[in-house]
Known about the structure:
Translation Initiation Factor IF3, single chain, 37% strand, elongated, six-stranded antiparallel β-sheet, alpha+beta, 6 strands
Amino acid sequence: xxxxxxxxxxAACMLQCATVERSWRAKGMTTPAGPPLAYQASxxxxxxxxxxxxxxxxxxxxxGAMQNFVSDxxxxxxxxxxxxxxxxxxxxxxxxxxxIIPLIFSPTITxxxxxxxxx
Length: 119
């Protein structure tokens, strides 16, 4: 039990982050709003209580992930952005074969996808 708590604490420290991926080469692809600066995917990792009910460490709710998407787009120089897809996964079934703890402390991953524009 002690090892499990230590592992969960370490995972909580590592999962409080967000990553961003961008494709700068559109290769002629365009959108109704014109050619984008880049296509962006921002992924937010966090630990939530009770299968995503409340954020505990980090915030991978759709609102928190949208804030990360917007701040990442602005860091890349975007003035405008569109969201084309949001994907949220709450890993509350089992993690490494442990079934009770993930029901209470659930790792949650949310990814927001969309083009960003410089004008």
